Amino acid sequence: MMLQDIQLMARIAVSIVLEAAPFLLLGSLLSAAVERYVDTERIARRLPKGLLGRMAVGLLGGMILPICECGSVPLARRLLEKGVPPLTAITYMLAAPVINPVVLLSTYVAFSGNFKMTLARALVAACGAALTGWLCRGRLFAEFHADSIRPASLPDLKHQHSHGAQRVSADGCNHRMVLNLLSSGASEFLDMGKYLVLGALASAAFKVFLPWQLVQALAGNASLSIAVLMLLAVLLCVCSEADAFVAASFVYVPPAAQLGFMALGAMVDLKLMGMYFSAFPKKIAWPLIIIPVVCVFVLSNLLSLLMR
Fold first, then answer.
1. For 195-208, what is the mean pLDDT?
2. pLDDT at residue number 208
3. Higher-confidence position of 23 and 142
4. Tens digit of pLDDT for each residue in 259-280?
5. With b meaning 16 or more CB within 10 Å and e meaning fewer, what string describes 105-138?
6. Are 229 and 258 in contact (CB under 8 A)?
């Protein structure tokens, strides 16, 4: 029986990885292109003047400049260094890993064409990102520009996964640019792939080995299941391009719990926490963690009432 269970777990994990891998690869290539070739100075010069316009740019920037959550932190830091307001930069940092074409498409595919789940994921992520970005302009972040973006206080934080080749020179050949981009994307794909495998194994083990009594307890308690899957999202660190396939495999929990897993994982997980504390002072890093967690938990519980 144990051998059969292990074989079943392996089949489930492999199926999750095979479904998610193409989206992870596409997202890795796009993310590498954004990090290498986007002109942050031009973005800073062309921002709207109004607060709502700046927030909208942060929320929807991922549709034009899609990037994974690991790349969003150093990119947001560079935007801040170029004079982009925290309202825009922080909102983009938290929203872009979810509100971008690759992630929305992967969510739609993972949930078998469920547009409501795709929309709910985008809305919850947008609320968490917008609220955090809005608070960046308050008293809590009053010294943001003065203290937080000085070169001395911000280490030269790189993408947590290596991009391999160096940036190509302006007069480099096109084939060199393509090779460098492919090298960067492949490096990112391989580095993030291990988190996908870890998440797939955890999901498969959850389905095969979790006692039925505990499954029933989670299925019957929306708040508990939301909290458990949010914790899993923090621990597993699955990339946003692939986490929908992991979430969809948790078939025994309410949809709101799957939503909490997807919405939080792109904004707060163990690797992102380390990046936040490396890139920002503690008084800013902690709100970047706490506000999304509270927002996702509250909204997921509210949506669980609507999904009944």
1. 81
2. 80
3. 23
4. 999 999 999 988 888 888 888 8
5. bbbbbbbeeeeebbebbbbbbbbbbbbbbbbbbe
6. yes
Left if phi > 0, otherwise alpha if psi is -120 to 50, otherwise beta: which for 217?
alpha
Residue 284 lies in domain: 2-306
d(CA 202, CA 197): 9
For the ranges 23-32, 66-75, 92-101, 128-137, the maximum mean pLDDT occurs at 92-101
**How many domains does the chain fold into?**
1
When pLDDT is averaged across residues 71-84 and rounded to a whole number, the result is 81
pLDDT tens sequence across 217-226: 777 889 999 9
* Three-class secondary structure assignment of the chain: CHHHHHHHHHHHHHHHHHHHHHHHHHHHHHHHHHHHHCCHHHHHHCCCCCHHHHHHHHHHHHHHCCCCHHHHHHHHHHHHHCCCCHHHHHHHHHHCCCCCHHHHHHHHHHCCCCHHHHHHHHHHHHHHHHHHHHHCCCHHHCCHHHHHCCCCCCCCCCCCCCCCCCCCCCCCCHHHHHHHHHHHHHHHHHHHHHHHHHHHHHHHHHHHHCCHHHHHHHHHCHHHHHHHHHHHHHHHCCCCCCHHHHHHCCCCCCHHHHHHHHHHHCCCCHHHHHHHHHHCCHHHHHHHHHHHHHHHHHHHHHHHHHCC
